[in-house]
Write a structure and sequence with these properties.
alpha/beta, OB fold (Dihydrolipoamide Acetyltransferase, E2P), 2 domains, 15 strands, five-stranded parallel sheet, Rossmann fold, 8 helices, elongated
Length: 253
């Protein structure tokens, strides 16, 4: 059975381009039900046509793609976002473990997105939670509230404020939360460092990323170490010490 798709983009050329690519190269897998360049029109059309997958442009008039999603009480379809480039929007999408494509659309990336959709069809509840998480993050005035963390069995949605620190464990990351909770995430510490850029986190060591909201004390030394709100300690590397001191000086907690 073909995957039913709907394309939403305010640029006619972009809509036609994606539709042509799908019909030329993915006709055996996908069926384009329709396209729209207007949020209100798209909302009604999607309700009627009931697609499996929506390719959704982020930057559109009348609130854009995120506004369209928020109109649905129950998002019954998967979403692949399409964007020229919007740093905060992409960050929010990544935090919710959702897919996006950059314009101009790359064929290999499009194929990957289609394959991910196929594998996620058996996890509809998780996909709905991802989108709900994304909408909450977008509404929170450019501050991420929750992150979708892969733990090997699926996804766990964690409020950022609950994360005390993250510690590298090879290709995995141990996330320490308030009240002694911890999980092992199947992502590297570098991934979290990139994702937390602009949030209240600091990489004090190649193995340690801390939430500054939970920083209690810095103890001097060759590199020194920090004490966190859960009573744990983490080493500050000599290489990071100067940057960390400058940051604390210019950003009093």
């Amino acid at each position: 059975m073909k995957i039913k798709v709907f394309i939403v983009d305010d640029e006619q050329g972009a809509r036609e381009s994606l539709k042509n690519i799908i019909e030329k190269y993915f006709a055996e897998e996908l069926l384009v039900l329709g396209t729209s360049g207007d949020v209100t029109e798209a909302f009604e059309a999607i309700k009627l046509s009931k697609p499996d997958l929506v390719f959704l442009d982020i930057e559109m008039p009348k609130g854009g793609g995120f506004n369209l999603l928020s109109k649905f009480e129950d998002v019954f379809f998967n979403v692949v976002f399409v964007t020229a480039y919007d740093q905060y929007a992409i960050k929010a999408i990544k935090f919710s473990a959702l897919d996006y494509l950059l314009k101009p659309i790359d064929m290999d990336e499009l194929e990957k997105a289609i394959q991910k959709h196929k594998s996620s069809k058996t996890q509809e509840r998780v996909e709905k939670q991802k989108i709900k998480n994304l909408i909450e993050n977008i509404k929170s005035e450019n501050h991420i509230r929750k992150i979708a963390v892969p733990d090997g069995n699926g996804l766990i949605f964690i409020p950022l404020k609950n994360i005390v620190r993250c510690e590298s464990d090879g290709n995995y990351t141990i996330i320490y939360q308030k009240e002694g909770k911890k999980i092992v995430a199947s992502r590297t510490l570098g991934d979290f460092d990139d994702m937390f850029s602009g949030e209240n986190f600091f990489r004090i060591h190649r193995s340690h990323l801390i939430n500054l909201e939970h920083l209690v004390k810095y103890v001097k030394g060759e590199g020194g170490y920090v004490e966190m709100s859960d009573g744990s300690k983490a080493e500050v590397s000599r290489r990071k010490k100067s940057d960390f001191m400058d940051f604390l000086k210019n950003n009093p907690l």
